[in-house]
Design a protein that fits this description.
This protein has 189 residues and is of the alpha+beta class. 35% of the residues lie in helices and 16% in strands. 13% of the residues are buried.
Length: 189
């Protein structure tokens, strides 16, 4: 009986996942990676007594496929729960917003009253979606993929909401400016 053979090019998370499932399915896999290590942009760097994770995102409880993969690989015991509270810096102060209770933001001094009213537009836009944006399959909402997160925020909200919420969140979650990602990233965040 001849065995199937596959070459997977790239040892980032997608390549490693493909290689894992192919091997699990009985396929002989050769993984090619140009870099000095596998993992792509995801790594832990130790510097000055601190551990810094360099990945572009965290794994939230909504990432069901990633969590299943972690369980399959026996890595789920290494997952560290984190807080749902996000700190935003404005005017030299840290303002905390709890992602599990975003309505409390209405009482936070993070945004002006005008900013809060403008931010409510994005909440309404999100609520109008039949289904929330699936971060692993944004194709269901491809019709929204017509502008950057920056363009959306400036069109539907205002500069304050963009500067205080949208751009900082995009920089934290996807490691780039809101001008460089789709509005879908804003909704998935």
């Amino acid at each position: 009986m001849s065995q199937n053979r596959v070459v997977v090019v790239g040892g980032g998370l997608a390549g490693l996942t493909a290689a894992h499932y192919l091997q699990k399915g009985g396929v002989a896999v050769k993984l090619l990676e140009a870099g000095a290590r596998v993992g792509g942009r995801v790594a832990s760097v130790r510097r000055d007594g601190y551990t810094l994770d360099t990945g572009a995102t965290q794994i939230s409880t909504g990432y069901l496929e990633y969590l299943a993969l972690c369980r399959d690989l026996g890595l789920d015991r290494h997952l560290v729960p984190s807080s749902s509270v996000i700190g935003f810096i404005r005017d030299g102060r840290i303002h905390e917003i709890d992602g599990k209770n975003p309505l409390k933001m209405a009482f936070s001094p993070l945004l002006s009253v005008r900013g809060k009213l403008a931010a409510a537009r994005t909440v309404l836009d999100y609520a109008r979606m039949r289904r929330p944006v699936d971060v692993l399959d944004v194709s269901r909402h491809h019709a929204l993929d017509i502008e950057s997160a920056e363009d959306y925020a400036l069109r539907r909200c205002n500069q304050e909401v963009y500067d205080t919420l949208v751009d900082p969140l995009m920089r934290a979650y996807v490691m780039t400016r809101a001008s460089r990602v789709s509005a879908l990233e804003w909704f998935s965040t």
